[in-house]
Structures are given as C-alpha cells and as structure tokens.
Design a protein that fits this description.
Blueprint: E1 2-8, H1 15-18, H2 29-32, H3 44-47, E2 53-56, H4 68-75, E3 80-83, H5 88-97, E4 101-103, H6 107-110, E5 116-120, E6 125-128, E7 131-134, H7 140-147, H8 151-159
Parallel strand pairs: 1-2, 2-3, 3-4
Antiparallel strand pairs: 1-5, 5-6, 6-7
C-alpha cells in the first residue's frame, strides 16, 4: 500500500508530450527527467515526489515507441501510471522497465491533480477521496517482473538461480 499525490492528465497524451523528442539527445534519463511533461506542466518535474501517481484518460502513451517516456516517469519516482487505457507499446515498455501501468476505468473521472490515492496492486484496487475503485489486476507473472525492477532484472535474477 503506497499513498501518494495524483497528477492528472487527459486522453490521448502521447510520448512526445511525456518527453519531447529534442530531449532524447541528452545523455541519460537523469538529465531528461527535468523535462517530463514540460509542454503540459512546466513545473511537473519539480513538483512530483517519489511515490506520487500519474492518472490519465484513454490511450495514455500513444505515439512513438520511445522507452524514455516511461523511463523518465520512473526516474522521477512515479509509483505507477493509472489510466483508462494505454497505448500497447507504452504499456509494454512500462512493465519492461518496472513501472506499473494499471487500467482503472472509473478513477480518472473522479479525481483531480493534488488529490491523494493509495494503490493496492496485488488486490487490483485504488482508494481515493473515500472511495475504492476496482482496477485491472496484473497477472502474478507481471507483478513478479515489476517487483524485480523490470523484465531484464527479472530475467537476470532467474539466471542466477
């Protein structure tokens, strides 16, 4: 159970709005993360804290397949992205790097930036504003990948056994 502040975004937010292409020239995620959501909220990277959440509408992370988009969110300490739906490649990239991407159809309509929420990933629920929302519960193998820090970390730990 992790409680954090919500940063809310809208439908069809694409990867260029998460991290604009000109910042992909920077040498690493540490330098890129200061520019996360720059076109949406220029102070986002300064305001977001570890264990905060990004909540959005439909088709979050559409656009290019750049894995820096979930990467900068994880580098900033975002605990999870909860949306009505995800672009398939963003969802896959997020899980691969160890950033939970949770589908929750009703939550985004009921919350605002600044609200707090608590994610119960293993139960598939979120609590916000005194209400419990049912979300898609990730399969055990995906939760295992996330708990290990992403796909590569998970595979490396399997090889060590």
């Amino acid at each position: 159970m992790d409680k954090g502040t919500i940063f809310k975004f809208y439908n069809d937010l694409d990867t260029d709005q998460i991290i604009a292409s000109q910042y992909l020239l920077l040498p690493n995620l540490e330098e890129m993360k200061a520019h996360t959501f720059e076109s949406q909220d220029p102070d986002f990277a300064k305001k977001v804290k570890p264990d905060d959440y990004v909540v959005a509408g439909e088709n979050f992370g559409c656009g290019s397949s750049r894995e820096q988009a979930p990467g900068v969110l994880k580098a900033l300490g975002v605990k999870a992205v909860i949306a009505k739906s995800f672009a398939r490649i963003f969802f896959r990239n997020a899980i691969n790097i160890g950033l939970p991407a949770i589908v929750c159809k009703d939550l985004p309509d009921d919350v605002q930036t600044g609200d707090t929420m608590e994610l119960h990933m293993s139960e598939g629920t979120v609590e916000a504003n005194g209400k419990t929302y049912t979300c898609t519960k990730l399969p055990e193998y995906m939760q295992h990948i996330l708990n290990q820090g992403g796909l590569i970390a998970s595979l490396n730990k399997e090889e060590d056994k």
